[in-house]
Automatic annotation (TrEMBL):
Protein encoded by which gene: LOC115756497
Biased composition regions of type Acidic residues, renumbered to the chain: 23-49
Matching Gene3D superfamilies: 6.10.140.2220
InterPro entries to which the protein is assigned, alphabetical: PDCD2_C (IPR007320), Znf_MYND (IPR002893)
Organism of this sequence: Rhodamnia argentea
A Pfam family it matches: zf-MYND
Amino acid composition bias (Polar residues), ranges on this chain: 230-242
Region (Disordered): 16-51, 230-249
Alphabetized UniProt keyword annotations: Metal-binding, Zinc, Zinc-finger
Lineage top rank: taxon: Eukaryota
Domain MYND-type: from-to ranges: 192-230
Protein name: Programmed cell death protein 2-like isoform X3
Length: 415
């Protein structure tokens, strides 16, 4: 299974009385509503190939135990810090930075997605990072259209890591999920004390204990209180608590476990009137990004895509991720404009083979992460991840794959 299945603990109750917003708003007349229904019906004969493939839906919920998201349990998760599959050979250098502003990227989510066709992919995970700056994402939109795309500057990056069953980090036996599972050895690379995400290859010159991925994070930690605490660190050496091991940054996104369900379980007829109490954003709470998206539709093709997108998402409105690595699978695009062609997706930079669609992240995740809804806040219509179709091996512990971002409003893209 691409994501570890967890039992539903009722965390979606916080979404009671909210749902995915309908295309029309409260003041639209009957003709507008009929137009939406007609567009959705017209699209029935032209549904994307993705609809014909078995799709796994990802939902977020708070972890049931403090150990549920440790790396030796191979979790799928969103927010917080990554559970690195290979804890040593982490992405380094500029690959971990936003190419626009030069700041370290922030962890968005990871998906545990092993494949059974080769021993080398017995363990396999994808990691998605983004710059939290919306101006950087808008510049990213211009860059992703560059040819060749491998030379583009990006604010959204994705990495793939895979290991055989017999490896130096984990037991060959499946985890017991009872709190007793431990990784093999203790050779994990030290992580940045501020973000807890990237390798800490810089060290505090005073205490010689705190490590950082960048001078920026070292300065932020110093100003937030390390200036005082590092003076006492020598007396507490070897007595650090679990709290001391947590990242010092308070700007990380809240942490969730991603659990999965087959979309087929939600394949029921959805009433034409999508205004029900189970949608993600109620009509009274329709946010500006949805209005902006509708306003920027470029003809009937965008409206048809939006109608199809709305119809499918409404079947399971709390979904934050869609996964399907089957041959010929395609994303569920909110809009037809801004979609890449096959030529826009670069081949794997390691083996030269084509990349294929593997997963997409939906804008519902922004709600769970607590991202504010204003003009400068991070926002997307969807983030689509393409990975090497051969899932090739190689020396690099983490291979960079390709992410295509469709923003809510094409007019916002920096020329």
């Amino acid at each position: 299974m691409p994501m570890e299945i967890g039992e539903n603990d009722g965390s979606v109750e916080m979404l009671k009385n909210i749902h995915i917003s309908s295309y029309e708003d409260d003041n639209d007349d009957d003709a507008d509503r009929e137009e939406v229904e007609d567009l959705m019906n017209d699209d029935d004969d032209n549904e994307n190939d993705e609809v014909q493939k078995p799709v796994t839906l990802g939902f977020v919920e708070k972890p049931k135990n403090k150990w549920s998201l440790l790396r030796q349990l191979f979790p799928s998760k969103a927010g917080g810090v990554p559970a690195w599959l290979d804890p040593n050979d982490l992405p380094s250098g500029r690959s971990r930075l936003c190419d626009m502003c030069g700041e370290p990227l922030q962890f968005l989510l990871q998906v545990y997605a092993p494949t059974s066709d080769r021993e080398s992919t017995f363990h396999r995970a994808l990691y998605l990072f983004t710059c939290p700056s919306m101006p950087c994402l808008l510049r990213d939109q211009h860059e992703q259209w560059k040819q060749p795309a491998v030379n583009a500057s990006r604010s959204v990056k994705v990495f793939r890591c895979q290991l055989p069953r017999d490896n130096p980090f984990y037991s060959t036996e499946p985890p017991r999920h009872d709190g007793s599972d431990k990784p093999l050895g203790s050779g994990a690379a030290p992580l940045c004390k501020w973000c807890g995400t990237w390798k800490g290859d810089k060290v505090c010159g005073s205490c010689r204990e705190a490590r950082y991925c960048s001078e920026k994070h070292q300065a932020m930690h110093w100003r937030s209180g390390h200036k005082v605490t590092c003076q006492n660190s020598s007396t507490n050496a070897g007595n650090s608590s679990a709290e001391d091991q947590k990242p010092a940054s308070r700007s990380l996104w809240p942490e969730y476990e991603i659990v999965n369900e087959d979309e087929a379980e939600y394949d029921v007829n959805v009433p034409a009137d999508l205004d029900n109490t189970d949608c993600l954003v109620s009509r009274n709470q329709m946010d500006d990004s949805i209005n902006s998206l509708v306003d920027c539709f470029q003809g009937d093709s965008d409206r048809r895509s939006w109608g199809n997108f709305q119809e499918r998402i409404a079947r399971a409105p709390e979904q934050v991720l869609r996964y399907c690595r089957n041959v010929g699978a395609r994303p569920l695009w909110p809009m037809s404009s801004g979609q890449p062609s096959t030529a826009d997706i670069p081949n794997c930079s390691y083996c030269g083979k084509p990349r294929c669609f593997e997963l997409q992240v939906l804008p519902q995740l922004l709600y769970f992460l607590g991202v504010e809804n204003n003009a400068d806040s991070l926002d997307w219509a969807t983030i689509v991840v393409y990975s090497c179709e051969a899932s090739c091996d190689g020396a690099a512990g983490y291979k960079e794959e390709f992410a295509w971002v469709q923003v809510s409003s094409p007019s916002q893209v920096v020329p």
